[in-house]
TrEMBL record:
Annotated Gene3D superfamilies: Tetracycline Repressor, domain 2
A Gene Ontology molecular function term of the record: DNA-binding transcription factor activity
Lineage, highest ranks first: Bacteria, Bacillati, Actinomycetota, Actinomycetes, Kitasatosporales
Protein's name according to its UniProt entry: TetR/AcrR family transcriptional regulator
DNA-binding region residue numbers: 36-55
Family annotation (PROSITE patterns): HTH_TETR_2 (PS50977)
Top-rank taxon: Bacteria
Record flagged with keyword GTP-binding: no
C-alpha cells in the first residue's frame, strides 16, 4: 500500500482501511450477499456517504487494493532502469502479487469471490482495466500509441498470468512457466517496434 505523506492524507487512508477491513470481516462472517453498505458503515462507525466517498460500490470494498495493484504493475514498467528488460521486470512484480494473493489469509476471500457472480464480474472488469493501464505504460515506453496491438496483447497475457498462476497448484512455478511463453512472444514482436524514442526499453 502506498503510504500517504500529509496528516490529512494519512487520516483518509486510515479511514479507508478501517472501512475495508470492517467490510471484509462482515462479508466473511455473514456472507457477501447478506451484508449491506449500511451495516458496514454502522460497524465501522462512519456515515454511508463516507463509505461511498472511498469506494464506488459494494464490490470495490472486497478489492480495496485494486488501485495499488494497478500502480505497481505500471511502475514495474515505468520505474525500471534504462536498460532493464521489460518482461523480467513484469515477471518479478507478478511473482510478488501472486505471493500476496495466495497466502493462507487470502484463501477465504477468494472462495467468497468465486461464489459471487457480482464479485467475479467486478474482478473481470478490474483485470481488463489493469491490462489497459499496463498496455498504455508499455506503449509509452516505446513511443507508440496506447492502443498498439502488441502492447495490449502482452499486457493481457501478463494480467492473465496472475490469474492463472493464482489458481495453479504451484503458483510461483506457474508464473515462471507462463512468463517463458510471454518472453518468447515479446521477442518476436519487439524488434518490429523499433528502438527509437526516449523511453524505448525492451
Amino acid at each position: 500500500m502506498i503510504v500517504p505523506t500529509g496528516r490529512r492524507e494519512r487520516k483518509k487512508a486510515a479511514t479507508r482501511q478501517k472501512i475495508a477491513d470492517t467490510a471484509l470481516r462482515l462479508f466473511l462472517e455473514r456472507g457477501y450477499d447478506a451484508v449491506g453498505i449500511r451495516e458496514v458503515a454502522a460497524e465501522a462507525d462512519v456515515a454511508v456517504t463516507t463509505v461511498f466517498s472511498h469506494f464506488a460500490s459494494k464490490e470495490a470494498l472486497v478489492f480495496e487494493q485494486d488501485e495499488d495493484f494497478e500502480q505497481r504493475l505500471v511502475r514495474a514498467v515505468t520505474d525500471r532502469a534504462p536498460h532493464e528488460p521489460l518482461i523480467p521486470a513484469l515477471r518479478q512484480e507478478i511473482h510478488a502479487l501472486v505471493r500476496h494473493c495466495t497466502g493462507d489469509d487470502a484463501a477465504p476471500v477468494w472462495r467468497m469471490i468465486v461464489a459471487s457472480p457480482a464479485l467475479l464480474e467486478y474482478e473481470e472488469s478490474m483485470r481488463l482495466r489493469h491490462a489497459e493501464s499496463l498496455a498504455a505504460a508499455i506503449a509509452a515506453g516505446l513511443d507508440l500509441p496506447p492502443a498498439t496491438t502488441s502492447c495490449r496483447t502482452v499486457a493481457r497475457f501478463v494480467i492473465d498470468a496472475y490469474t492463472l498462476a493464482r489458481e495453479a497448484a504451484e503458483p510461483q512455478d506457474a508464473v515462471d512457466e507462463i512468463f517463458r511463453m510471454i518472453e518468447a512472444a515479446w521477442a518476436v514482436v519487439r524488434p518490429a517496434q523499433g528502438t527509437t524514442g526516449h523511453g524505448a526499453k525492451g
